[in-house]
Specification:
Elements (H helix, E strand, L loop, with lengths): L2 H21 L3 E2 L8 E2 L1 H11 L2 H16 L12 H4 L4 H18 L5 H28 L3 H8 L4 H26 L3
Antiparallel strand pairs: 1-2
Helix pairs in contact: 1-2, 1-3, 2-3, 2-5, 2-6, 2-8, 3-5, 5-6, 6-7, 6-8
Amino acid sequence: MSQAKKLNDLMYAGLFAALTAVLGLVSIPLPFSPVPISGQSLAIMLAGSVLSVRQAGLSILTFLLVGAVGVPVFAGGTGGLGIVFGPRGGYLLGFLLGAMVISALKGSSNNVWRLALANIVGGIGVVYLLGVAWLSLVTGMGLQKAFLAGALPFLPGDFFKVFIASVVGVALNKQLRTAWGRA
């Protein structure tokens, strides 16, 4: 791998890790759930929509490692291992896998419908699967109750984020292809 490619990967990873942290400041706690509404799922969808699988993985891994050591980059300005291993930990792992799945499913396509499907599968399906399972395990509330507290209230907002990420992703991909000559 060339030095330019490595530098490009690191630049995109840092940029989207920072975007994910910034969108975590948009956080609304819910009284019935240990999981807040946050803008971070939009950042995950955007990372997968725009970056390669490698870049998306590096981006979210960077975000997770920075948060795990205590820098307050997680939703609501939190950080540390307590968050990683607490009720929200499965969603955080889901962010990593979800962004990579989105990128893999979109491939080199810049079709809004394909990107929307990729965002639904990776940004909602993968994130919720891991998040709800972990929430149930850590809290002992059972899968049904974990789904009701940790997924159902978030679905309308996340489908709106799919729309935003897909439309913005197509526009960004078009601009990046023009500016950088990316295929």
